[in-house]
Design brief:
The complex is a heterodimer of chains A (about 550) and B (about 90).
Chain A (H helix, E strand, L loop, with lengths): L4 E8 L15 H24 L3 H14 L2 H13 L4 H19 L1 H21 L14 E5 L4 H5 L6 E6 L7 H9 L3 E2 L13 E5 L4 E4 L36 E6 L2 H9 L4 E5 L14 H14 L4 E5 L29 H4 L1 H17 L3 E6 L5 H13 L4 E6 L2 H5 L1 H4 L5 E5 H8 L18 H16 L3 E5 L6 H10 L3 E4 L4 H8 L4 H12 L4 H10 L3 H4 L3
Parallel strand pairs in A: 1-2, 2-3, 3-4, 7-8, 7-14, 8-9, 9-10, 10-11, 11-12, 12-13, 13-14
Antiparallel strand pairs in A: 1-5, 5-6
Helix pairs in contact in A: 1-2, 1-3, 1-5, 2-5, 3-4, 4-5, 8-9, 9-11, 17-18, 17-19, 19-20
Chain B lengths: L2 E5 L8 H12 L5 E5 L5 E2 L3 H6 L7 E6 L4 H13 L4
Antiparallel strand pairs in B: 1-4, 2-3, 2-4
The chains are: A alpha/beta (about 550), B alpha+beta (about 90).
């Protein structure tokens, strides 16, 4: 689920909730009042946890805060107390279980959200029983956290430095546990039935890559498992020889960033530059596009973090799938195939010009090695138009994103006017396989190990090598160590990923040779399936195993 | 009773963030609003749990109903909101 091998003492999520007994209410009005008080307390507790969180976690906590005071829940609880004479805590239990069942029956994505409802139920019932809010264990040593499923609220109070790994009895690939583990690079196995039945003093070993869990392992089982220190791989800042293979081949290790805060983190982690600077943040929630001066100040701030180093800035990648208020426009039936990226140039001609103007101004002010690229390029005309516009503004290094298969098939025409291309593997995979990234059932198509995707990257690299165009990759695939090696073998010379993944990928690069990467790439290219491609590459890269990747 | 039909524009359907945004907008004003999926039973639109339970997907048609002063304008606003990408 989330790779890495660790073992350590098991600690269970402290969950004091007990199913309330089915006993009649003695005083309906008093019970209704107590329920309401507990709901309010839980709702505001969750709201305050939400305020301290960010991203998906904050979204879930805000939603849970609404659920805890849901007007229909209040009505149902009142009904259960008044007409079925249930006690207050029992009524909460029953009413929320009914909502939960509804979500489970709906299946898929909604079934995953059932855990949020269970968590709200447990919290209200716990508070009504006079106990503390459920809290994570707080031992003073490293441990493997065992739980039924983890809610965002559970993990909000967790000392993540001490968590070696997660094993949960429930939860799926989009559960909160899975998302959290991946973003923090903590090894995790979800949906491990029976894990809650183990003895309290057990040692648990888990392999997040394969999904294996061993309870009370023998010493011989623990080869390549880590027990202490940070299972969360240390985010050692990259040193001077980062990105160099055993035989001296150089690959640039770059960061994907979306604003100044991430630029600072990337610079502190020693990123050799920025391979993808997303500019959407400047345009979100705006009724009017930001002015040239506003943009210039923001770009300058980011460039200052990377003086003398590469910063690859991508022009606005918005459109029907990421609606911006000032763009207006109709809802498209198929937004991934709609007016997005460079295609906005036709509908909103001034936008790109203003952005290039601002980038050029900031590049003149700060001595960063500024590269500019356009997203969603499909044709030779739009490539040439973009290059002309950017060069007219005085920008020296101009490239495009390779995401649309058409641009690869036309590479001999598209690439020659470019200094570089950057392959966006997430979109390239979705468009090559004609599989919507947002549709969970299509996950096996949306796998960058699909041989068709590897072949397209190979074609792009070959076309680039015939000219003077350099190729980098920005996308989730660059942070998959095995895939990074394949990319290097294909001829990619820059890997851009979220800052937290840099040191891990660097570990692998420093342990392999270019020739090994080339054999892994050659073998993956001959695979018939995504799984076979992955296996072939891994078999030729035994270092992955030794590094626990 | 005034009502309006709209096709849900958010890619993830009416759950997660879009559902919370919609429910919050309904709850922040005094007129009771109901929402139904297709020909289904209307549920209170101020209830996140009920709205999630409808399992509304991208492209599903929903019907909003409301009665009271300013109901028409309110329904138009909410329908506009649902038609957009809210995630």
């Amino acid at each position: 689920m989330s790779p890495g091998r660790v073992y350590g003492p098991a600690e269970r999520m402290i969950n004091t909730v007990v199913e309330p007994a089915d006993r009649p209410t003695r005083d309906p009005e008093r019970d209704i009042g107590r329920v309401h008080g507990a709901m309010q307390e839980v709702s505001s507790h969750l709201a305050s946890l939400a305020e301290q969180s960010t991203g998906v976690v904050a979204d879930v906590l805000h939603a849970q805060s609404l659920m805890a005071l849901d007007p229909q829940l209040v009505a149902n609880v009142r009904e259960l107390i008044n007409t079925e004479h249930l006690s207050g805590d029992r009524a909460v239990w029953v009413a929320l279980n009914r909502f939960r069942e509804m979500l489970v029956e709906a299946g898929g994505y909604l079934a995953e959200r059932a855990a949020d409802v269970t968590d709200v139920r447990n919290r209200i019932v716990t508070v009504m029983g006079g106990a503390q809010h459920p809290a994570p264990p707080r031992p003073d040593r490293s441990f493997v956290l065992i739980a039924d499923d983890l809610s965002p609220a559970d993990t909000a109070g967790l000392d993540l430095e001490l968590v070696l790994g997660f094993v949960t009895a429930n939860g799926g690939p989009t559960s909160h546990t899975a998302i959290l583990a991946k973003s923090l690079m903590i090894p995790a196995v979800v949906a491990c039935q029976g894990i809650l039945d183990i003895d309290e003093s057990s040692i648990v070993a888990l392999d997040g890559g394969s999904g294996g869990v061993i309870v009370d392992p023998a010493q011989s089982d623990l080869k390549n498992y880590r027990a202490t220190g940070t299972s969360r791989r240390e985010h050692k800042p990259l040193d001077n020889d980062a990105g160099t293979t055993v035989d001296g081949w150089q690959v640039q290790l770059l960061a994907n960033i979306g604003g100044l805060d991430e630029a600072k983190q990337a610079a502190a982690a020693g990123a050799q530059g920025v391979g993808l600077f997303r500019t959407e943040f400047l345009f979100l929630d705006k009724m009017e596009p930001p002015t040239v001066d506003e943009q210039l100040a923001q770009y300058r701030g980011v460039f200052e973090q990377f003086r003398g180093r590469k910063v690859t800035i991508r022009t606005l990648d918005a459109g029907a799938d990421k609606q911006l208020p000032f763009l207006g426009g109709d809802t498209e039936i198929n937004p991934a195939l709609g007016v997005r990226g460079i295609r906005l140039k036709r509908t909103h001609p001034g936008l790109l010009e203003a952005q290039l103007e601002a980038i050029s101004g900031a590049a003149r002010d700060v001595d960063a090695d500024v590269h500019v690229m356009a997203p969603m390029v499909a044709t030779v005309e739009e490539t040439n138009e973009f290059v002309d516009s950017a060069r007219a503004k005085g920008l020296a290094k101009v490239g495009v994103m390779v995401e649309v298969p058409a641009s690869v098939l036309m590479a001999d025409q598209v690439f020659p006017s470019l200094d570089f291309v950057s392959i966006g593997t997430n979109d390239l995979t979705q468009y090559t396989m004609a599989a919507d990234r947002m549709v969970g059932e299509l996950a096996r198509y949306n796998d960058y190990w699909q041989p068709a995707v590897i072949r397209l990257i190979d074609l792009a690299c070959q076309a680039a090598q015939r000219g003077e165009t350099s190729v980098s990759v920005c996308g989730e695939s660059a942070s998959d160590a095995a895939y990074a090696a394949v990319l290097i073998g294909l001829g990619v010379t820059g890997l851009s990923m979220s800052t937290s993944c840099l040191s891990l990928v660097n570990e692998l690069i420093k342990s392999v040779t270019l020739e090994q990467c080339q054999s892994a790439a050659g073998s993956a290219l001959r695979a018939k399936t995504a799984q076979e491609a992955r296996q072939r590459a891994r078999a030729l890269l035994p270092q992955l195993e030794q590094l626990g990747l | 009773m005034p009502e309006v039909q709209v096709t849900v524009g958010s890619r993830v359907g009416l759950h997660a963030r879009p559902a919370a945004l919609f429910v919050r907008a309904v709850a922040s004003q005094p007129i009771p609003v109901t929402i139904a999926k297709g020909d289904g039973k209307p549920v209170p639109a101020a209830s996140l749990l009920s709205v999630l339970g409808l399992a509304v997907l991208h492209g599903d048609a929903v019907t909003l109903q409301a009665e009271g002063e300013g109901a028409q304008e309110l329904l138009a606003e909410l329908a506009d909101m649902l038609a957009q990408e809210l995630d």
